[in-house]
Amino acid sequence: MELLKDMALFVEVVKAKGFRAAAQVLNMPNSTVSRRIGALEKAIGLRLLQRTTRKVELTEAGQIYFERCKRIVDEARIAHEELDGMLAQPSGVLRASLPVDFAATYMASLIAEFAARYPDLIFDFDLTPRQVNLASEPFDVAIRIGEPQQPHLIARRLASWPPCLYASPAYLLRHGEPAAPDGLAGHQCLSMPGNGSWTLDDGVTTVQVAVGSRFTINNAGLIRRLATLDQGIVMMPHAIVADDLAAGRLRRILTHWHGKPVPIYAVTETRLLPAKTQRFIEFVRERLSDGPWFAEPGE
Protein backbone atom coordinates (compact mmCIF):
# COMPACT_ATOMS: atom_id res chain seq x y z
CA MET A 1 0.00 0.00 0.00
CA GLU A 2 2.86 2.41 0.79
CA LEU A 3 4.39 1.67 -2.60
CA LEU A 4 1.08 2.47 -4.31
CA LYS A 5 0.88 5.77 -2.39
CA ASP A 6 4.41 6.68 -3.46
CA MET A 7 3.59 5.77 -7.07
CA ALA A 8 0.54 8.05 -6.91
CA LEU A 9 2.71 10.82 -5.43
CA PHE A 10 5.26 10.38 -8.23
CA VAL A 11 2.49 10.69 -10.84
CA GLU A 12 1.26 13.93 -9.26
CA VAL A 13 4.78 15.41 -9.23
CA VAL A 14 5.17 14.66 -12.95
CA LYS A 15 1.76 16.11 -13.79
CA ALA A 16 2.43 19.23 -11.74
CA LYS A 17 5.96 19.51 -13.20
CA GLY A 18 7.46 20.18 -9.80
CA PHE A 19 7.54 19.28 -6.11
CA ARG A 20 6.12 22.58 -4.88
CA ALA A 21 3.16 22.54 -7.27
CA ALA A 22 2.41 18.90 -6.41
CA ALA A 23 2.63 19.69 -2.69
CA GLN A 24 0.05 22.44 -3.12
CA VAL A 25 -2.32 20.12 -5.02
CA LEU A 26 -1.92 17.38 -2.40
CA ASN A 27 -1.93 19.81 0.55
CA MET A 28 1.26 18.46 2.09
CA PRO A 29 4.66 19.97 2.88
CA ASN A 30 7.05 20.35 -0.03
CA SER A 31 9.77 18.68 2.04
CA THR A 32 7.60 15.59 2.52
CA VAL A 33 7.01 15.25 -1.22
CA SER A 34 10.72 15.61 -1.98
CA ARG A 35 11.72 13.14 0.75
CA ARG A 36 9.27 10.46 -0.36
CA ILE A 37 10.27 10.73 -4.03
CA GLY A 38 13.92 10.48 -2.99
CA ALA A 39 13.15 7.36 -0.94
CA LEU A 40 11.28 5.87 -3.93
CA GLU A 41 14.27 6.46 -6.22
CA LYS A 42 16.57 4.89 -3.64
CA ALA A 43 14.34 1.83 -3.30
CA ILE A 44 14.22 1.40 -7.10
CA GLY A 45 17.92 2.11 -7.54
CA LEU A 46 17.42 4.54 -10.43
CA ARG A 47 16.97 8.30 -10.71
CA LEU A 48 13.46 9.05 -11.96
CA LEU A 49 13.55 12.84 -12.03
CA GLN A 50 16.18 15.29 -13.18
CA ARG A 51 15.93 18.24 -10.79
CA THR A 52 16.78 21.84 -11.72
CA THR A 53 16.18 25.09 -9.88
CA ARG A 54 13.02 25.80 -11.88
CA LYS A 55 11.44 22.44 -12.67
CA VAL A 56 11.83 18.69 -12.75
CA GLU A 57 12.08 16.54 -15.85
CA LEU A 58 11.71 12.81 -16.35
CA THR A 59 14.76 10.68 -16.94
CA GLU A 60 14.51 7.78 -19.39
CA ALA A 61 13.79 5.43 -16.49
CA GLY A 62 11.33 7.95 -15.07
CA GLN A 63 9.37 8.09 -18.34
CA ILE A 64 8.95 4.31 -18.37
CA TYR A 65 8.00 4.26 -14.69
CA PHE A 66 5.53 7.14 -15.09
CA GLU A 67 3.63 5.44 -17.92
CA ARG A 68 3.22 2.24 -15.89
CA CYS A 69 2.46 4.03 -12.61
CA LYS A 70 -0.21 6.23 -14.13
CA ARG A 71 -2.20 3.23 -15.37
CA ILE A 72 -1.87 1.44 -12.03
CA VAL A 73 -2.93 4.53 -10.09
CA ASP A 74 -5.88 5.12 -12.43
CA GLU A 75 -7.09 1.54 -12.00
CA ALA A 76 -6.77 1.77 -8.22
CA ARG A 77 -8.70 5.04 -8.16
CA ILE A 78 -11.51 3.61 -10.29
CA ALA A 79 -11.78 0.57 -8.04
CA HIS A 80 -12.16 2.77 -4.96
CA GLU A 81 -14.73 4.99 -6.66
CA GLU A 82 -16.86 2.02 -7.61
CA LEU A 83 -16.73 0.64 -4.07
CA ASP A 84 -17.52 4.04 -2.57
CA GLY A 85 -20.58 4.51 -4.74
CA MET A 86 -19.17 7.53 -6.54
CA LEU A 87 -20.72 6.42 -9.80
CA ALA A 88 -24.09 7.45 -8.39
CA GLN A 89 -22.98 10.95 -7.35
CA PRO A 90 -19.64 12.09 -8.84
CA SER A 91 -17.52 14.53 -6.88
CA GLY A 92 -14.09 16.11 -6.95
CA VAL A 93 -12.56 18.32 -9.65
CA LEU A 94 -13.41 17.78 -13.32
CA ARG A 95 -10.62 19.15 -15.51
CA ALA A 96 -11.53 19.50 -19.19
CA SER A 97 -9.98 21.11 -22.27
CA LEU A 98 -12.61 22.67 -24.55
CA PRO A 99 -12.50 24.37 -27.97
CA VAL A 100 -12.58 28.11 -27.33
CA ASP A 101 -15.36 29.31 -29.64
CA PHE A 102 -17.46 26.17 -29.42
CA ALA A 103 -17.41 26.26 -25.63
CA ALA A 104 -18.13 29.97 -25.34
CA THR A 105 -20.91 29.95 -27.94
CA TYR A 106 -22.65 26.64 -27.38
CA MET A 107 -21.53 24.82 -24.24
CA ALA A 108 -22.17 27.42 -21.53
CA SER A 109 -25.80 26.35 -21.04
CA LEU A 110 -24.80 22.67 -21.08
CA ILE A 111 -22.14 23.25 -18.44
CA ALA A 112 -24.60 25.14 -16.23
CA GLU A 113 -27.13 22.31 -16.50
CA PHE A 114 -24.50 19.66 -15.73
CA ALA A 115 -23.22 21.65 -12.74
CA ALA A 116 -26.75 21.87 -11.33
CA ARG A 117 -27.18 18.12 -11.73
CA TYR A 118 -23.95 17.31 -9.81
CA PRO A 119 -23.51 19.94 -7.06
CA ASP A 120 -20.54 18.12 -5.49
CA LEU A 121 -18.37 18.64 -8.58
CA ILE A 122 -15.85 21.46 -9.00
CA PHE A 123 -14.92 22.48 -12.55
CA ASP A 124 -11.58 23.49 -14.04
CA PHE A 125 -11.95 24.29 -17.76
CA ASP A 126 -9.11 25.19 -20.13
CA LEU A 127 -10.23 27.10 -23.26
CA THR A 128 -6.88 27.67 -24.91
CA PRO A 129 -6.61 26.59 -28.57
CA ARG A 130 -3.56 24.39 -27.97
CA GLN A 131 -3.79 20.60 -28.00
CA VAL A 132 -3.22 19.68 -24.36
CA ASN A 133 -1.13 16.61 -23.52
CA LEU A 134 -3.57 14.26 -21.81
CA ALA A 135 -0.79 11.86 -20.82
CA SER A 136 1.29 14.35 -18.85
CA GLU A 137 -1.13 17.16 -17.96
CA PRO A 138 -3.88 16.87 -15.33
CA PHE A 139 -6.88 16.83 -17.68
CA ASP A 140 -9.66 14.27 -17.41
CA VAL A 141 -11.07 14.83 -20.89
CA ALA A 142 -10.71 17.04 -23.97
CA ILE A 143 -13.53 17.91 -26.34
CA ARG A 144 -12.24 18.13 -29.92
CA ILE A 145 -13.84 19.18 -33.21
CA GLY A 146 -12.65 17.23 -36.24
CA GLU A 147 -11.05 13.83 -36.63
CA PRO A 148 -8.61 12.89 -33.82
CA GLN A 149 -4.96 13.47 -34.66
CA GLN A 150 -3.44 11.37 -31.84
CA PRO A 151 -4.13 7.66 -32.42
CA HIS A 152 -2.74 6.60 -29.02
CA LEU A 153 -5.60 8.38 -27.22
CA ILE A 154 -9.16 7.10 -26.72
CA ALA A 155 -11.69 9.05 -28.81
CA ARG A 156 -15.46 8.74 -28.32
CA ARG A 157 -17.67 10.30 -30.99
CA LEU A 158 -20.24 12.64 -29.45
CA ALA A 159 -22.01 14.01 -32.51
CA SER A 160 -21.58 14.96 -36.13
CA TRP A 161 -22.93 18.32 -37.33
CA PRO A 162 -23.17 19.34 -40.99
CA PRO A 163 -22.16 22.99 -41.47
CA CYS A 164 -24.33 25.36 -43.49
CA LEU A 165 -23.69 28.62 -45.34
CA TYR A 166 -24.38 32.01 -43.75
CA ALA A 167 -23.86 35.68 -44.54
CA SER A 168 -25.05 38.99 -43.16
CA PRO A 169 -28.07 40.70 -44.75
CA ALA A 170 -25.94 43.77 -45.54
CA TYR A 171 -23.29 41.68 -47.31
CA LEU A 172 -25.95 39.97 -49.42
CA LEU A 173 -27.60 43.28 -50.24
CA ARG A 174 -24.25 44.68 -51.40
CA HIS A 175 -22.89 41.65 -53.26
CA GLY A 176 -25.96 39.60 -54.11
CA GLU A 177 -26.89 36.09 -53.00
CA PRO A 178 -25.42 33.10 -54.88
CA ALA A 179 -28.11 30.95 -56.49
CA ALA A 180 -25.92 27.84 -56.73
CA PRO A 181 -22.68 26.54 -55.19
CA ASP A 182 -20.56 27.62 -58.18
CA GLY A 183 -21.64 31.19 -57.48
CA LEU A 184 -19.48 31.18 -54.34
CA ALA A 185 -16.38 31.65 -56.48
CA GLY A 186 -17.27 35.32 -56.92
CA HIS A 187 -17.73 35.99 -53.19
CA GLN A 188 -15.58 36.56 -50.14
CA CYS A 189 -15.68 33.17 -48.34
CA LEU A 190 -14.26 33.22 -44.83
CA SER A 191 -12.60 29.97 -43.77
CA MET A 192 -9.65 28.49 -41.93
CA PRO A 193 -6.14 28.43 -43.48
CA GLY A 194 -5.64 25.62 -45.98
CA ASN A 195 -9.38 25.33 -46.62
CA GLY A 196 -9.35 26.73 -50.15
CA SER A 197 -12.29 24.67 -51.32
CA TRP A 198 -15.66 23.75 -49.83
CA THR A 199 -17.41 20.42 -50.39
CA LEU A 200 -21.19 20.82 -50.53
CA ASP A 201 -23.98 18.25 -50.62
CA ASP A 202 -27.72 18.56 -51.24
CA GLY A 203 -28.54 14.93 -50.53
CA VAL A 204 -28.25 13.97 -54.19
CA THR A 205 -25.18 15.71 -55.58
CA THR A 206 -21.79 16.45 -54.07
CA VAL A 207 -19.76 19.33 -55.49
CA GLN A 208 -16.44 20.91 -54.62
CA VAL A 209 -16.15 24.67 -54.99
CA ALA A 210 -12.97 26.74 -54.92
CA VAL A 211 -13.34 29.68 -52.53
CA GLY A 212 -11.19 32.64 -51.62
CA SER A 213 -11.04 35.61 -49.30
CA ARG A 214 -8.93 38.62 -48.37
CA PHE A 215 -8.56 37.13 -44.90
CA THR A 216 -6.53 34.18 -43.62
CA ILE A 217 -7.74 33.39 -40.09
CA ASN A 218 -7.11 30.44 -37.78
CA ASN A 219 -9.87 31.29 -35.31
CA ALA A 220 -13.50 30.31 -35.89
CA GLY A 221 -14.81 32.99 -33.53
CA LEU A 222 -13.14 35.77 -35.51
CA ILE A 223 -14.37 34.29 -38.78
CA ARG A 224 -17.94 34.29 -37.46
CA ARG A 225 -17.57 37.84 -36.14
CA LEU A 226 -16.28 39.13 -39.48
CA ALA A 227 -19.26 37.55 -41.20
CA THR A 228 -21.59 39.52 -38.92
CA LEU A 229 -19.62 42.64 -39.89
CA ASP A 230 -20.50 42.09 -43.58
CA GLN A 231 -17.10 40.73 -44.63
CA GLY A 232 -18.17 37.52 -46.34
CA ILE A 233 -19.83 34.10 -46.32
CA VAL A 234 -19.07 31.44 -43.69
CA MET A 235 -19.72 27.71 -43.50
CA MET A 236 -20.33 26.61 -39.90
CA PRO A 237 -22.63 24.35 -37.86
CA HIS A 238 -25.93 26.03 -37.00
CA ALA A 239 -25.28 25.79 -33.25
CA ILE A 240 -22.22 28.05 -33.54
CA VAL A 241 -24.11 30.86 -35.27
CA ALA A 242 -27.52 30.36 -33.62
CA ASP A 243 -27.36 33.60 -31.62
CA ASP A 244 -26.41 35.62 -34.70
CA LEU A 245 -29.26 34.07 -36.67
CA ALA A 246 -31.78 34.83 -33.95
CA ALA A 247 -30.56 38.44 -33.78
CA GLY A 248 -30.68 38.87 -37.56
CA ARG A 249 -26.93 39.41 -37.89
CA LEU A 250 -26.62 36.39 -40.21
CA ARG A 251 -28.94 34.62 -42.62
CA ARG A 252 -28.68 31.15 -44.09
CA ILE A 253 -28.13 30.95 -47.84
CA LEU A 254 -28.16 28.07 -50.34
CA THR A 255 -30.57 26.41 -47.94
CA HIS A 256 -30.62 23.06 -49.77
CA TRP A 257 -26.87 22.64 -49.46
CA HIS A 258 -24.60 21.80 -46.52
CA GLY A 259 -20.98 20.91 -45.97
CA LYS A 260 -19.34 17.67 -44.90
CA PRO A 261 -20.49 16.78 -41.36
CA VAL A 262 -18.04 17.91 -38.68
CA PRO A 263 -17.40 15.24 -35.99
CA ILE A 264 -17.12 16.14 -32.32
CA TYR A 265 -15.16 13.83 -30.01
CA ALA A 266 -14.44 13.39 -26.33
CA VAL A 267 -10.79 12.36 -26.01
CA THR A 268 -9.24 10.69 -22.96
CA GLU A 269 -5.88 9.16 -22.17
CA THR A 270 -7.38 5.88 -20.92
CA ARG A 271 -10.57 3.83 -21.07
CA LEU A 272 -10.57 3.66 -17.26
CA LEU A 273 -12.62 6.72 -16.42
CA PRO A 274 -13.79 7.96 -13.03
CA ALA A 275 -17.48 8.70 -12.51
CA LYS A 276 -17.16 12.44 -13.04
CA THR A 277 -15.63 11.95 -16.50
CA GLN A 278 -18.05 9.23 -17.53
CA ARG A 279 -21.05 11.32 -16.55
CA PHE A 280 -19.72 14.42 -18.32
CA ILE A 281 -19.08 12.55 -21.58
CA GLU A 282 -22.49 10.87 -21.45
CA PHE A 283 -24.23 14.17 -20.75
CA VAL A 284 -22.46 16.09 -23.54
CA ARG A 285 -23.13 13.28 -26.03
CA GLU A 286 -26.83 13.30 -25.15
CA ARG A 287 -27.14 17.06 -25.51
CA LEU A 288 -25.08 17.33 -28.69
CA SER A 289 -27.03 14.55 -30.40
CA ASP A 290 -30.25 16.44 -29.59
CA GLY A 291 -28.82 19.77 -30.68
CA PRO A 292 -29.73 21.78 -33.80
CA TRP A 293 -28.21 20.55 -37.04
CA PHE A 294 -29.75 23.01 -39.47
CA ALA A 295 -31.35 26.41 -39.22
CA GLU A 296 -34.74 26.45 -40.82
CA PRO A 297 -34.86 28.66 -43.94
CA GLY A 298 -35.93 32.14 -42.94
CA GLU A 299 -34.61 31.91 -39.34
Please provide a written account of the structure.
With 299 residues, this protein is of the alpha+beta class. The chain has 3 domains: 83 residues, Orthogonal Bundle (Arc Repressor Mutant, subunit A); 98 residues, Periplasmic binding protein-like II (D-Maltodextrin-Binding Protein, domain 2), CATH 3.40.190; 96 residues, D-Maltodextrin-Binding Protein, domain 2. It contains 9 helices and 14 strands. It has a 5-stranded mixed beta sheet, with helices on one face. α5 links the parallel β3 and β4. The protein is elongated and about 75 Å long. The model has no long low-confidence stretch (mean pLDDT 86).
CATH class type of the largest domain: Alpha Beta
Helix content: 40-55%
Question: How would you sum up the global shape?
Answer: elongated
Distance between the termini: 61 Å
Number of domains: 3
Structural class, by secondary structure, is alpha+beta
Oligomer: single chain
| Low-pLDDT stretches | none
Strand order of the largest sheet: 4-3-5-14-6
Rg estimate, integer Å: 24 Å
The CATH topology label of the largest domain is D-Maltodextrin-Binding Protein, domain 2
* Number of beta strands: 14
Integer average pLDDT: 86
Q: Largest sheet, if any?
A: 5 strands, mixed
H/E series = HHHEEHEHEEEEHEEEHEHEEEH
Strand content: 15-25%
Within CATH, the superfamily of the largest domain carries the name Periplasmic binding protein-like II
- The CATH architecture of the largest domain can be named as 3-Layer(aba) Sandwich
Helix tally equals 9
